[in-house]
Amino acid sequence: xxxxxxxxxxxxxxxxxxxxxxxxxxxxxxxxxxxxxxxxxxxxxxxxxxxxxxxxxxxxxxxxxxxxxxxxxxxxxxxxxxxxxxxxxxxxxxxxxxxxxxxxxxxxxxxxxxxxxxxxxxxxxxxxxxxxxxxxxxxxxxxxxxxxxxxxxxxxxxxxxxxxxxxxxxxxxxxxxxxxxxxxxxxxxxxxxxxxxxxxxxxxxxxxxxxxxxxxxxxxxxxxxxxxxxxxxxxxxxxxxxxxxxxxxxxxxxxxxxxxxxxxxxxxxxxxxxxxxxxxxxxxxxxxxxxxxxxxxxxxxxxxxxxxxxxxxxx
Length: 315
Fold this sequence. Notes:
This protein is of the alpha/beta class and about 325 residues long. It has a single domain (about 15-315), classed as SGNH hydrolase (Rossmann fold, 3-Layer(aba) Sandwich), CATH 3.40.50.1110. The protein has helices at about 40-45, 60-65, 85-95, 150-160, 170, 185-210, 235-260, 265-270, 300-315; strands spanning about 20, 25-30, 55-60, 95-100, 115-120, 120-125, 135-140, 215, 260-265.
């Protein structure tokens, strides 16, 4: 995700992901979706990690990097990479020979193959971190494509302040000419189209690192259809935004399925911890000491994701 203003171990056992086989690849499913029977040894072996130390590369945006979580890594400070991010925690839990965190705040799928301009500097394409010997790749990109996230959190709050009723943000981005928006800028359709960009990234990973095990990490349940002061959306826009994020997550899951990669459903993992939840893992438009970056997670989310990935990859 992008920085605020430019408009992502308390997981229960039921929420931790398990690796299962599927016809065209493998998926990481959670909760009630986990089959009660084990995958066959042959198909499970298709995703089993190689023995010995791993070469692990993490790709993603600010929900991967851990924007403003302590402690921030000194290299490429504009990227906001933290030692408390889920890739960093996962690397500490696994037997790794090397770990490269190529994630960067504001990254889109296009930044896999092209330099990313951020903080007044150019950051190397994330794909450059890969090599033929890469064993494991985690990937979470797409939320910044077409400025999807920026439009949601930047615009929905602004228009709601002027009229805290109805669905002003949905009406602005309903895709129809004369709506006051850009005409055709239907954010539900945009979220669905992001599957194409994620698919291109997965194709690029396969070309450079053909033997790597790849896990696509979905986006969390940031908005759960309810509103509150911290969120600042109207009730109708909160329900619509939930549908946009659910569509985005389905785009990532579908791209993973087509590429034979695994998918981690963090929407179920973060159930009950949305911005308006009783125990929120994510800040709304106002940061707090425990949630230091607006519209981004605190420390609980990366801990839960790292725990889910570790269990799935080492079971």
